[in-house]
Design a protein that fits this description.
This protein is of the alpha/beta class and about 350 residues long. Helices cover about 20% and strands about 25% of the residues. It has six helices and 18 strands. Strand 5 (about 95-100) and strand 6 (about 105-115) form a beta hairpin. The model is unreliable at about 1-30 (pLDDT under 50).
Length: about 350
């Protein structure tokens, strides 16, 4: 469906589309550079007031000592952010908005339409802010980028997240897994459900119902299908960017001797795969995708992370795992968010 621009609003998308007719495509992890439209609004256009709050996305407090800029072609208007708020007069148009300052990562919103006076609030990632004992510093910035944005080669390097809360773990019995062993799988899932599911989605999802039943070919919304098995390894779905369902497959036998895994090993493997399904990717071991920050088994910033994948996986979330989840599932971190903090559109 094509939506015509409202009267009196300069369309950023239309101008970018025209520019693409004469410009070569860019590539790279943070996507092609975006230039604000090079059309000057009519001089007779009336300005309107845009204002709002600028807050710390992690701690929630106000941001000071920052500058917010609304860009439209060669026209740029900036205002200071003081006491966690800003106010600026602009003409109705579609803007590229940036927020820069010494205390925060540069934040960019590539499309914000101002059609009249309005309130437009933003949040930024503030250096030194933290939760759960984890701090957003240079090391965590790289870890978060690897865990939350990088995926298998060929997939978008951007934030992927559930757009509806998951509500059910649907566990499929397997004839190769004896009843007693299957009961231990259910027990491990029950512990994860009670201890970690809330933090895996930072409250976007709570403990889920656990249901057993025959295998299904469909993927119902809100359902994570769990398949204990004998002959393949463990995996969790990492493909879609707007997630509505997921799948976990996990080998319940040790690959080296074929004996049934201990309860703690089962729990660790299932938790790791559920982190994949929630949004995450490997940090230090296994398939690291393009691995832009050079992590490895010997260069691992947080070995206690369930996504470190160093062997002997932990069965509880590290503080950095929880902080990463809370940034991903904050409403101001959008599907498609690029490094360092670029949202494709305003809310």
């Amino acid at each position: 469906m094509i939506t015509m621009p409202r009267r009196g609003i300069v369309s950023h998308r239309a101008l970018v589309a025209l520019a693409l007719l004469t410009a070569a495509c860019g590539s790279g992890k943070s996507g092609p550079a975006v230039t604000a439209p090079s059309v000057t609004p009519p001089q007779t256009a009336n300005t309107v007031s845009a204002s709002g709050a600028v807050t710390d996305r992690i701690g929630g407090g106000p941001i000071d000592s920052a500058t917010i800029t609304f860009a439209l072609g060669t026209i740029q208007k900036s205002a200071s952010v003081t006491g966690g708020s800003y106010a600026i007069d602009v003409v109705p148009a579609e803007y590229l908005v940036t927020i820069t300052g010494p205390s925060n990562l540069p934040q960019e919103t590539r499309s914000l339409t101002v059609s009249g006076p309005g309130t437009f609030s933003f949040s930024v990632l503030k250096w030194g802010s933290g939760l759960f004992g984890a701090t957003y510093d240079q090391t965590f910035d790289k870890f978060f980028d690897q865990v939350a944005r990088v995926g298998p080669v060929g997939t978008p390097y951007s934030i992927r997240k559930w757009v509806i809360p998951p509500t059910e773990l649907y566990v499929v019995p397997n004839l190769t897994v004896a009843a007693e062993q299957f009961a231990d799988v259910l027990a491990a899932l029950g512990e994860i459900n009670a201890e970690s599911v809330h933090d895996l989605w930072c409250g976007f999802a709570g403990p889920m119902s656990i249901v057993t039943g025959p295998d299904i070919a469909t993927h119902p919304d809100g359902v994570i299908i769990v398949r204990p098995n004998f002959d393949v390894g463990c995996s969790g779905t990492v493909g879609p960017t707007s997630i509505r369902s997921g799948t976990v497959t996990c080998n319940v036998f040790r690959p080296n001797d074929g004996s049934f895994q201990s309860h703690e090993e089962l729990k660790a493997g299932l938790l790791h795969e559920l982190y994949h399904v929630a949004f995450g990717y490997h940090a230090c071991g296994g398939d690291l995708g393009t691995n832009p920050h050079g992590f490895s088994l010997t260069n691992c910033p947080y070995p206690a992370s369930v996504m470190a994948n160093l062997g002997g996986a932990p069965n509880v979330l590290a503080p950095q795992d929880k902080l990463a989840a809370c940034i991903v599932y904050h409403p101001d971190t959008h599907v498609g968010n690029l490094y360092p903090d670029i949202n494709p559109t305003y809310r």
